[in-house]
Amino acid sequence: MNATAKNSNMKSKGKVYLIGAGPGDPTLITVKGLELLKRAEVVVYDYLASPKLLKYVPKEAEFIYAGKKGGVCHAHTQEEINQMLVDHARAGKIVVRLKGGDPFIFGRGGEEIEELVDAGISFEVVPGVTSATAAATYAGVPITHRGYTASVAFITGHEDPTKESSSIAWDKISTGIGTLVFYMGIKNLPSISKNLIANGRDPQTPVAVVRWASTPAQKSVVGTLANIAEVVKEGGITPPALVVVGEVVNLREKINWFEKRPLFGKRILVTRTREQASELVRLLEDQGADCVEGATIAIEPPDSWEPLDKALTEIADYHWIVFSSINGIRFFFERMNANGLDTRALHGQKIAVVGEATAEVLKEYGVIADLIPAEYTGDGLAKSLIDQGINGKKVLIPRAKKAREIVPETLAQHGADVTVVPVYQNVQPKGYEKIVAELESGRIDMVTFTSSSTVSNFIEMIREENKGRLLNNVALACIGPITAKTAEKKGLKIDVQPEIFTIPEMVESILDYYAK
Ligand code: SAH
After folding, report:
1. 330-372: per-residue pLDDT in tens?
2. Quick check: CB of 503 below 6 Å from ligand 1?
3. What pTM does this model have?
4. CA 138 to chain centroid
5. Where would you tag: which of 101, 397, 484, 510 has the fewest CB atoms within 10 A of its CB?
6. Residues 6+ apart with CB under 8 A from 259
7. Residue 18: CB within 6 Å of ligand 1?
8. Is it true that 15-129 and 300-427 share their CATH fold?
């Protein structure tokens, strides 16, 4: 294949997928849309497309925020967006253009595709759940119903009400169609209601206005054509919101399901250590809670490997290597390997670990611990070593940068020559500022703890001195007595604690707490 053929072949791969992200809940995207997101090389996304969907896009992809908040505050002009799609596709890329709801319903998807057709770019369009049907559904309103309406219309509420001649046939839609759904209609709601009433629709027609439909932030209000503008103003409903007009809105009283889930409107911070399964999050979300997942700790290599590297060059001089944590073992062996050494380098040393779990991890590296204390604590470890006769012995302790000094100090007091080397460090996890800011602004209703370390790490993260202020109006849930005891030691007051220490029982207790 010559260079040109290869080139044109590459170009033919370039394609744009215009995908509807659905209304807000990221799980409402289509299976096809999701599959394509996973293959994207460039993703161009709008304000209304759930940011949670971006985690499915490969990390190496190029992420471009196109803006489009409220139809005005654009990060890029429509022309720029069109051009970007063309350029990236021409460069041979798989381009995903991700839009809120359905791309062909008030999304300017048509314009973007026309541009692609003109430029000769291949494309596909993947429909999405449009916010009109989602808003009605999630507000408990069947958008059509045999007993109420035989027709439904999607209408823009964005039209300038001062415009001389409207492109909306108010005289026909007001009474000619059963259910009317207005997109982008919050600002113009007074004139929308006025137009409908002036054209013969009963002022008592029920109206629902739904903000951030299908998301945990959903808020909806109901009124009549006569008073809905007032109700919306009083309820503080701001865009993005949908206006649903028609008799079907009366069914909400009976069908309203989403907002009636027991934990709807509760924002719960689920603290976790690294890579913990999210069963708790799933169960809480099933009950309607809005979960914020907060890693309370992140682990990184130390700032410098010099101390360990030096110790490794002199490893033959040591008598004992002491591991008081799993991370200590992992980072130690990884670095040793990186330096071209394997376990044979440790043939002359005895190895002590703090407990069964550390001993198990040590085995993964082919090493059987010479000493496991009867009591799995730093104290226990130090005592056992002293019993072995530590006086005059050279001891290497690879461990966290910041850790309790009990082991090295006790050993030194008993005549050991102790070298402590940092092999990892605990750092503030990514996103912790966001969590602190959420607590700060009082948006968190509850914090859950599933282990003692989540409690300690959490307190470390928000800092001891801030806990009173940040947790003032926050309920605290613990999985069991040990976690609760740690929390109490840290001066926290526990509100929820199940009798059986499992995640499902913990969720039951949280439900009971809020049912009261
Ligand atoms: N293509 C989109 C609509 C884009 S127009 C779709 O099919 O849904 C933008 C308008 O959609 C907003 O002003 C608002 O009226 C509506 N909208 C989009 N997402 C919404 C949501 N989650 N809740 C309520 N309204 C929403």
Report:
1. 999 999 999 999 999 999 999 999 988 889 999 999 999 999 9
2. no
3. 0.75
4. 21
5. 484
6. 138, 139, 140, 218, 220, 265, 288
7. no
8. no
